[in-house]
Write a structure and sequence with these properties.
This protein is of the alpha/beta class. The protein has a domain at 2-130 and 166-262 and 415-441 and 495-555: FAD/NAD(P)-binding domain (3-Layer(bba) Sandwich). The protein is built from 16 helices and 21 strands. Strands 1, 2, 3, 8, 9, 10, 11 and 21 form an 8-stranded mixed sheet that branches. Strand 2 (13-21), helix 1 and strand 3 form a beta-alpha-beta unit. The longest helix has 20 residues, at 445-464. 48% of the residues are buried. The structure holds flavin-adenine dinucleotide (FAD). Residues 21-27, 44-47, 75-76, 78-79, 82-84, 86-90, 192-193, 228-230, 233, 237, 491-492, 525, 536-539, 541 line the site of flavin-adenine dinucleotide (FAD).
Length: 556
């Protein structure tokens, strides 16, 4: 059932076997799995079917020092469906190496292993509509060449690892009908959790205090509660619920909010291949079920250990549109149209100014378009069709092979750092009176070294093998010399603030994602990841939520 919580009388007390706080991919996966056991579930999603100015404001917070992290209300959606209402759909599992305690990566190691998650990753792929959980090009595409560029792979790099692409599935829409029909599940649209009430001895969660608007509170009393609000809000709720446990729930060792991680990513240089028309697998490939897949350059665990760096991947990206260096007619067409329309909308004076200021770049874009002639029209139609008219969306428009200009994108693990943390901002409250967050993200030398090592090794390999060249601009060289100066944007990969650990002195939740020392409070989402890997987090978030559902169902 999906209900409007604004109709609940203030002061009411609702009862359930399980309360799920949150309404994103983690919460929905958990609800779908738990629903099958017939026990009563109440889901408090933190908003309605759309974001509103008021809900966006609930996510606002502070970044210390200012500018070192994206604004907290960007890239996180406070609503039913959560951030996966806008996600890209890239599905990547963690690698075995991510679970290992690596002596050269501080604070690494999970108390569980990848093998224990294999079945859950398969199910997560199903829920995400990303096909079969096979991420190895050698078995998914046995009849094609294994490597991205023939003869590139060596001891340091392999290129058979695949990423798979979800539709991208908006879980709140895709599974709405199932949830609506489930008589044992109640989704309380517009309800927010505003306090977690523990018993007087602090050992048990007694209820979740919820509200749709300030001053109109009600309670959800459940045998078990799972927080699935994303890594920033999970920590915030625990820290802000401090009437009995004065440091916050699960925080007796001052670990809630610490080890906050994200990923570092960006584009550095572009590749020119000696022969882009031959032995080069570059575009998205469809697996037998029609799911888009793409290969990636992965720095092997052996190379990670040899060079004492963290986990990292790369792939060729779409062109940055601003300059005409790419010689890609389609990108130039889009850019010209956007610039001219944008200018025209602001009036003739502004348009004239743009034409005057940018005439050189605009003329070179026009020249690229004229040279490519009518072929652009065909390409634009194909792209528009595959991107907007089909249920399964083409993940990204890539420059054509013949442009021979392939920007190198990298995405690296962010290693856990004790001082990288989210805290409460004691001086700023939201509409419900909850302290807002203060985020201080920190990186270590190994994070910077991982980026520069990856790019340097990639360049050496490409050039030594005679397969091509990685061209670096002055800005790229400056970045390689001073990677710490690069601007940071987390893109909603918020990880690690309630890390999983065997003991209460080294983490916030145990191997079953239960908060240490609180008997009926659990956490779902990337906040429980002890390390971040290079993988975009959602597939693993869902896999761990499904594992948690199994654990809870088995418990009682
Ligand atoms: C533009 C973009 C593209 C992305 N692309 C990818 C991609 O390709 N691949 C990938 O793996 N990841 C991607 N991500 C990240 C991905 O969207 C997130 O990892 C994922 O959505 C996290 O799911 P979640 O359920 O843990 O958290 P969220 O989706 O953030 O959901 C949190 C939920 O908790 C609710 N909530 C918050 N506070 C409260 C409260 N106090 N009470 C009740 N409820 C509350 C919110 O309303 C929301 O429903 C992308 C993100 C963005 C922004």
């Amino acid at each position: 059932m999906i209900e409007d919580a604004r109709l609940i009388a203030p002061g009411s007390s609702l009862e359930a076997d399980l309360c799920i706080v949150g309404g994103g991919a983690a919460a929905i996966a958990l609800a779908l799995e738990y629903m099958k056991c017939g026990r009563q579930v109440i889901l408090v999603p933190g908003g309605g079917p759309n974001q509103t100015a008021a809900s966006i404001d609930l996510y606002r917070g502070k970044v210390s020092p200012s500018g070192t992290h994206e604004p907290l209300e960007e890239n996180r959606l406070r609503m039913w469906g959560g951030t996966a209402t806008v996600w890209g759909g890239r599905c990547v599992p963690f690698d075995s190496v991510d679970f290992a305690a690596r002596p050269w990566v501080p604070n690494s190691g999970w108390p569980i292993k990848l093998n224990e998650l294999k079945d859950y990753i398969s199910r997560a792929c199903e829920l995400s509509e990303a096909g079969k959980a096979d991420f190895d090009a050698r078995s998914v595409f046995p009849n094609s060449q294994m490597e991205i560029v023939r003869n590139f792979d060596d001891d340091d790099f392999v290129t058979w690892p695949l990423e798979r692409w979800s539709i991208p599935t908006d879980f709140s829409k895709r599974y709405r009908a199932e949830l609506e029909c489930a008589s044992n599940v109640k989704v309380l649209l517009h309800a927010h959790a505003i306090h977690l009430q523990v018993s007087s001895d602090g050992l048990k969660l007694s209820h979740v205090k919820a509200a749709c608007s300030p001053g109109r509170d009600f309670q959800v009393r459940a045998k078990k509660t799972v927080l699935a609000c994303g890594a920033l809000e999970n920590a915030r709720l625990l820290l802000a619920s401090r009437d009995i446990l004065t440091a916050g729930i699960g925080n007796s060792h001052d670990l809630v909010g610490r080890y906050y991680q994200s990923h570092r990513f960006g584009v550095c240089g572009y590749v020119k291949l000696k022969n882009p028309d031959q032995d080069f697998i570059y575009e998205f490939e469809k697996d037998p079920a029609g799911v888009y897949c793409r290969r990636r350059f992965w720095l092997t665990p052996h190379a990670q250990e040899k060079h004492r760096v963290a986990n990292v991947v790369g792939f060729f990206f779409r062109t940055a549109a601003g300059s005409s260096e790419h010689r890609n007619a389609m990108v130039s067409t889009v850019l010209l149209v956007k610039t001219l329309l944008g200018g025209a909308r602001k009036g003739p004076k502004r348009l004239f100014h743009i034409l005057k200021e940018q005439r050189r770049e605009l003329v070179s874009h026009l020249w690229i378009i004229l040279k490519d002639g009518p072929s652009i029209f065909g390409q634009l139609t194909t792209v528009a069709y595959t991107r907007f008219c089909q249920k399964r969306r083409l993940p990204m428009v890539l420059p054509l092979k013949k442009t021979n200009h392939f920007p190198l994108f990298y995405q690296t693990e962010h290693t856990p750092h004790y001082e990288s943390r989210v805290m409460l901002d004691e001086f700023s409250l939201d509409d419900f009176g909850m302290p807002r967050l203060d985020v201080a993200i920190k990186f270590s030398e190994i994070d910077y070294r991982t980026m520069t090592t990856f790019i340097t090794l990639f360049k050496n390999r490409l050039e030594k093998s005679g397969l091509g060249t990685l061209h670096l601009s002055e800005a790229d060289k400056e970045f390689l010399a001073h990677p710490e100066r690069q601007d940071f944007n987390s893109n909603s990969h918020n990880i690690g603030t309630t890390r999983m650990s065997e003991t209460a002195t080294s983490g916030v939740v145990d191997v079953n994602c239960k908060v240490h020392d609180v008997e009926n409070l659990y956490i779902a989402g990337s906040s429980v990841f002890p390390t971040s890997g290079h993988a975009n987090p959602t597939l693993m978030i869902i896999a761990l939520a499904l594992r948690l559902a199994d654990h809870l169902k088995a418990k009682s």
